[in-house]
């Protein structure tokens, strides 16, 4: 007969039964999830109070839904990301031009992603380290577009699905089961946003070996096949402006931008932070080389794993048509997790260089304080810029709507943008915003750039009238101004 227990509220009454929620919280099992959830809500609160704004591609999805119905919101340019296409239909298509309602969905996906990353890290680190790394990742402002830009909400879905998939791969590998669900989930994550390709590949090739000590051939074979199929789909349906060609950004530029904690790589502050992080990594690696036993310590393991995740997150994003800061810092979504691992690892490394316990505590508190001061300051600036751009975009669309209906209109670029955050940065956004507001499919806006190239909307809707010119063309009788060195 099973004896009953009366050890306090929240604990179930039979010996061996699962503890109740209050006991789990007291024992630290639920506390990390609670802390992470609260932090996400705190970070989302400023945007909720001010009211989320519509920016750039938000207008395109709303325009598509207005003319083609809710199932057309994503449009042909999302064919390379079929999961995101469906997500756009279910958010911008069904909800419509209600930014606050869409932002609530974005917060929910943000929370799912944060908890999924926490769960993944808990399988690889101690519970305390997993919590600290997750909190640092959420606080550091090097992927703020996912917090403000409504069109990027499905990047959170990509992170959540990929992280849950990697967790399933770890669990099934430890039980010596074939991780079919994990492989399908990491592949689905890529179909939301291909930025997860690097960690997905590492997940099927490296993770099973890390947790079991042996290479899993079947997992690798099926996993690589699924990831290759998703990659082929993405490349086959990849869309850009007709007439435009993708360019290769220097790897060091993309890497520096990722390590700059929210600064542009060409800014002195961003370069300094990136240089300090890189120097710290080199110091840790040199000491590990001199004393191989350090490879077993948490600071070294965190730094090495962080560097690997940064590389896996950066490599898929080196080939871009545009820069990726501001609204484009969504490209740092995966690499930013690696940055958090680096920061925590380097912080532990510095603390352990201090012998006295009291001095260690002072150093630890000081590092946390510096990180918070820097992060809060940058966040305040970025949040203000997003809202300024949203208001400027709304005012610009209202101004365009008051003009005589003689299309196409030609305006200068930058039209509505500031410090890597765009309200309406090209003709695609501007035309979509004007059409969504007026209901006139023939309302076309061409945005003239400083390089004498004008951008207009690509054919998201074959029935739409966008004029006879291609979506990107060089203006005649235009002189390109000389470039100045920064």
- Along the chain, the helix and strand elements come as HHHHHHHHHHHHEHHHEHHEEEHEEE
* Helical coverage, percent range: 55-70%
**Uncertain spans, ≥5 residues at pLDDT below 50?**
1-17, 241-246, 320-326, 462-470
Sheet/helix structural class? mainly alpha
Number of helical segments with 4 or more residues: 18
Calculate the mean pLDDT score and round it. 80
SSE blueprint and pairings:
Blueprint: H1 21-26, H2 31-50, H3 57-68, H4 82-95, H5 99-124, H6 127-139, H7 145-148, H8 153-174, H9 180-192, H10 197-205, H11 207-212, H12 217-236, E1 247-248, H13 251-259, H14 268-290, H15 298-314, E2 319-320, H16 333-352, H17 357-401, E3 409-412, E4 416-418, E5 421-424, H18 427-438, E6 445-448, E7 453-455, E8 472-474
Helix pairs in contact: 2-5, 2-6, 3-4, 3-18, 4-9, 5-6, 5-8, 6-16, 8-9, 9-10, 9-12, 10-12, 10-15, 13-14, 14-15, 14-16, 15-16, 16-17, 17-18
């Amino acid at each position: 007969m099973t004896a009953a227990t009366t050890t306090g509220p929240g604990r179930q009454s039979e010996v061996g039964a699962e503890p109740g929620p209050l006991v789990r919280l007291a024992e630290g099992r639920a506390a990390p999830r609670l802390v992470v959830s609260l932090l996400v809500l705190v970070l989302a609160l400023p945007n909720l109070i001010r009211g989320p704004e519509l920016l750039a591609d938000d207008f395109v999805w709303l325009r598509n839904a207005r003319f083609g119905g809710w199932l057309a919101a994503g449009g042909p340019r999302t064919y390379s990301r079929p999961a995101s296409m469906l997500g756009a239909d279910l958010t911008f298509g069904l909800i419509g031009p209600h930014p606050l309602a869409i932002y609530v969905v974005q917060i929910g996906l943000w929370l799912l992603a944060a908890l999924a990353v926490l769960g993944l890290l808990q399988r690889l680190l101690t519970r305390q380290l997993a919590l600290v790394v997750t909190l640092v990742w959420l606080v550091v402002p090097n992927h703020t577009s996912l917090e403000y830009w409504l069109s990027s909400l499905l990047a959170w879905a990509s992170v959540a699905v990929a992280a849950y998939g990697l967790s399933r791969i770890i669990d099934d590998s430890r039980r010596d089961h074939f991780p079919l669900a994990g492989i399908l989930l990491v592949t689905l994550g890529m179909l939301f946003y291909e930025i997860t390709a690097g960690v997905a590949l590492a997940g099927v090739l490296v993770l099973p070996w890390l947790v079991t000590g042996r290479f899993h051939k079947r997992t690798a074979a099926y996993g690589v096949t699924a990831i290759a199929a998703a990659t082929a789909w993405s490349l086959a349906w990849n869309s850009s402006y007709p007439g435009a060609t993708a360019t290769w950004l220097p790897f060091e530029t993309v890497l520096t931008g990722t390590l700059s904690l929210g600064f542009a790589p060409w800014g002195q502050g961003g370069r300094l932070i990136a240089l300090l992080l890189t120097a710290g990594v080199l110091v840790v690696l040199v000491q590990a080389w001199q004393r191989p036993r350090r490879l077993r310590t948490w600071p070294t393991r965190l730094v090495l794993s962080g560097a690997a995740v940064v590389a896996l997150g950066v490599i898929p994003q080196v080939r871009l048509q545009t820069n990726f800061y501001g609204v484009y810092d969504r490209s740092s979504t995966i690499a930013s997790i690696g940055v958090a691992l680096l920061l925590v690892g380097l912080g532990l490394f510095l603390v352990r260089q201090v012998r006295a316990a009291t001095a260690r505590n002072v150093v630890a508190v000081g590092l946390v304080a510096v990180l918070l001061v820097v992060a809060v300051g940058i966040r305040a600036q970025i949040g203000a810029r997003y809202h300024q751009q949203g208001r400027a975009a709304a005012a610009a669309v209202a101004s365009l709507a008051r003009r005589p209906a003689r299309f196409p209109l030609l305006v200068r670029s930058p039209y509505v943008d500031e410090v890597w955050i765009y309200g309406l940065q090209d003709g695609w956004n501007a035309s979509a915003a004007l059409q969504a507001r007026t209901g006139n499919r023939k309302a076309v806006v061409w945005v003239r750039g400083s390089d004498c190239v004008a951008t207009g909307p690509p054919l998201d809707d074959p029935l739409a009238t966008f004029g006879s010119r291609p979506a990107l063309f060089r203006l005649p009788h235009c002189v390109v101004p000389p470039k100045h060195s920064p």
